[in-house]
Write a structure and sequence with these properties.
With 732 residues, the protein is α+β, with helices and mostly antiparallel strands. The protein contains 23 helices and eleven strands. Strands 6, 7, 8, 9 and 10 form a five-stranded antiparallel beta sheet that branches. A four-stranded antiparallel beta sheet has the order 2-3-1-4, with helices on both faces. It is elongated and about 90 Å long.
Length: 732
């Protein structure tokens, strides 16, 4: 099949290139504009209590004041505010109100209740209309308020700073844009340089960048936008940065798979066209299977409870499919029309394989000591896995996805120290009368006292706001802990038990607020771990079984990538929690590590195991096959793994905690997948298992002559002859 695909591409190379260019332009030009959602609540299904509480609040208190931004006033010298300072703050608030900024509904003046106990800080809550809160305008309104507030504060002794959700969205957008630029530029430069050095060629370094970012990326982005609109999916701000690295990294991986085999066939004496056809024929199945494993892993995220992953999964799956298709058609077409000397220029030794190649030496080590290699590489993975036992998840997505120096983060930190830690985002308990009746308000004080007695609660409002129909009451509850911390989430867990269990007869309670949302995200993640992980693993196992025609090898391959996942999580935990001293890592990190490391780690295992099977079918014994697989497949895996690891490491330059954790986790996980699992663990295990690895298939049965130690592997039986072209075609 892939030999025929290679033939088709080679014979119609210019048509294939033209078709890609035209399709890319058409898809990108017709793509709808998609807005990324930043509200955590937007990613939760409606059956979670926090979402039901939010809906109840909108129905019962449609005119209630919900601050979307918080103006924080403090003196420039840090001293307590004087009466003149408070008058100046009131004047600034009035000035902002008089400007009638579009979408700003209300600005509450500074009061004694909104002034910190030490008198150094004062708050002015700002309400923005609800229709604007789920659009890009939300951040734009914050930008206008921030600019006008700072302008009005000039000439006074006060500093005006804007925090809250709207300001966080603004800062997050600006931070994401800068991060995308840093990640994109760094990845492009590093890939071009590293691939260029590997092949000692300028054009070889540039080709994967051009094919991935100039052709595949716009096409993938366009298809993602169409799919997002057609299926009403959410979009997440982290997608753009991840997409750059996935398309460029995976595209470069597949280009290397193809280019190394292309160069190998040229060294074997094929003409340029024959080499392209043979390269596609030999690695096409590995690329397709590898892409299938990655696509399945990402696509399974549609089963997630969280809209964030529902958005991320299909988008990345589409990107991988487009990139793989480009690698199997566009890349071979480009190689077919460019002279080989041009592809590898100015290198002069590309036609000769070094006799003392280091990967040949590594292959001999695996051949002679497979048990020792398996125990050593597996031991490294097991040792690192121990660190995963201490993993602790955190839920402050906004605080972790932008630098702490951003103004909204500075305001948040100051509010935590100056006011009650939970004052910025209070928790709300909504008490509703069953059957549409009215609440007995005489029970409010006792109920509030029970809520206030919950460990971790600083204060529960004894006189709640009551809806116009008297059927719903809103009890504001201030927590002692910062709203996104695990202590606050634990408090909400206990608060829900008390709120539900101690609700007056004939009433029902629902707990809402940002901390309740984080609690429900935690529950949703637990659901996803139990559902998404096993299904993704089983589907990847099935792909491996079909590709290898075996029911034995896929099991230890999946066990190895599973160890790679736990070792990566353990390493990240040791670095960030034990060494760096963070109290936890982002809650989404394990599932992202699982998907990327398991899926892409399977890519490298597929490449090595496919070469193992090829060598076994050529008549080599299991140890010889392992030696040749490392010798020939090792350079490809090492180069692809190093480049993808470096690409993911560029996330660490973004300047925020989440990208730092994500970048390290992905880079280290890919490093383990390439240099520990695929290079040593998989071939060593396969050498030990022997021909049984291919049962019930015939991967170990020779289909040609015995290659002999160091001799060339026989080509698989094919109607296309030894060079992958029909026998009648001859050599050109």
């Amino acid at each position: 099949m892939f030999h025929r695909l290679g033939q088709f591409v080679v014979r119609r190379a210019w048509w294939v290139i033209a078709a890609w260019v035209v399709a890319m332009i058409a898809i990108a030009a017709s793509a709808p504009k998609i807005t990324a959602a930043t509200d955590e609540a937007a990613f939760l299904p409606k059956h979670y209590e926090s979402i039901q509480a939010a809906q109840l609040q909108e129905q019962a208190f449609p005119a209630s004041f919900t601050p979307s931004a918080l103006a924080l006033f403090e003196r420039n010298d840090g001293a307590p505010m004087t009466a003149d300072d408070k008058a100046a703050a009131a004047k600034i608030v009035k000035g902002l109100t008089d400007k009638q900024i579009e979408h700003v509904e209300q600005i509450v003046p500074v009061s004694d209740q909104s002034t910190s106990k030490d008198g150094k800080y004062a708050l002015a809550p700002i309400a923005i209309d609800k229709a604007t809160q789920n659009s890009e305008k939300f951040g734009e309104v914050a930008k206008k308020v921030r600019e006008e507030g700072k302008s009005l504060a000039q000439g006074t002794d006060l500093k005006f700073q804007l925090g809250g959700q709207a300001a966080q969205q603004l800062d997050q957008q600006e931070s994401s844009g800068a991060a995308d630029a840093v990640i994109g530029i760094s990845s492009v430069v590093l890939v071009a340089i590293i691939v260029g050095l590997i092949f000692r060629s300028v054009l070889a370094g540039v080709l994967p960048v051009l094919l991935s970012l100039v052709i595949a990326m716009p096409a993938a982005n366009g298809l993602i936008a169409h799919a997002t609109k057609a299926f009403d999916l959410k979009s997440t701000p982290v997608l753009s940065a991840i997409l750059i690295v996935v398309v460029l990294g995976v595209g470069t991986d597949y280009f290397l798979f193809l280019a190394f085999r292309y160069r190998e066939r040229l060294r074997a004496g094929d003409t340029r066209q024959e080499a392209v056809v043979n390269a596609v024929g030999r690695v096409g199945e590995a690329i397709a299977s590898a892409a299938g494993a990655v696509t399945v892993a990402f696509a399974v995220l549609v089963l997630s409870s969280l809209g964030m992953f529902k958005a991320l999964g299909p988008a990345l799956a589409i990107a991988v499919v487009v990139t793989a298709f480009a690698s199997l058609t566009l890349a071979p077409a480009v190689l077919a029309v460019i002279p080989a000397r041009g592809v590898f220029w100015p290198g002069k030794k590309w036609m000769r394989e070094p006799s003392d190649a280091r990967f040949a030496a590594l292959g001999r080590v695996v051949e002679k000591r497979p048990a020792l290699v398996a125990v050593a590489s597996g031991g490294v993975l097991l040792a690192l896995t121990a660190g995963a036992l201490g993993y602790n998840g955190t839920f402050d997505l906004a605080g972790s996805s932008m630098p702490k120096t951003k103004e909204s983060m500075v305001v948040q930190d100051k509010m935590v120290s100056a006011f009650s830690a939970g004052a910025a985002d209070p928790t709300h308990v909504y008490l509703t009368a069953n059957g549409g009746g009215k609440l007995d308000q005489s029970a409010f004080a006792g109920y509030a006292a029970k809520l206030g007695a919950v460990p971790g609660v600083a204060e529960a409002e004894a006189k709640p706001e009551v809806s116009k129909d008297g059927a719903t009451a809103d009890f504001t509850v201030l927590l002692k802990s910062e709203p996104s911390g695990n202590e606050a989430i634990d408090t909400v867990t206990e608060l829900r038990k008390v709120a539900h269990g101690q609700a007056p007869s004939g009433t029902e309670a629902k707990v809402g607020g940002i901390t309740a949302i984080y609690k429900d995200i935690n529950l949703a993640m637990s659901h996803d771990y139990k559902l998404v992980f096993p299904i993704a693993g089983l589907l990847i196992l099935l792909i491996l079984a079909l590709q290898l025609r075996s029911v034995v090898a896929p099991w230890y391959l999946m066990a190895s990538v599973g160890l790679g996942f736990t070792a990566t999580l353990g390493s990240s935990t040791l670095l960030f929690q034990n060494i760096k001293g963070e109290h936890g890592m982002m809650f989404m990190l394990p599932i992202l590590i699982y998907l990327f490391v398991v899926a892409i780690g399977t890519d490298y295992n597929i490449l090595i195991i496919a070469r193992l099977r090829e060598e076994a079918r050529a008549g080599r014994n299991p140890r010889e096959a392992a030696r040749e697989a490392v010798r020939h497949g090792g350079p490809t895996v090492a180069a692809a793994g190093f480049i993808l690891a470096v690409s993911f490491a560029t996330f660490m330059l973004a300047g925020n905690i989440f990208m730092l954790e994500f970048g390290f986790g992905m880079a280290f996980g890919i490093f383990l997948a390439a240099f520990v699992m695929a290079m040593f663990f998989t071939p060593a295990l396969t050498a030990l298992v022997g021909k049984a690895a291919w049962w019930p298939g015939h991967g170990g049965d020779a289909v040609g002559g015995h290659g002999g130690p160091g001799g060339p592997a026989a080509a698989p039986a094919s109607p296309y002859g030894a060079h992958g072209l029909p026998e009648s075609a001859g050599r050109h």
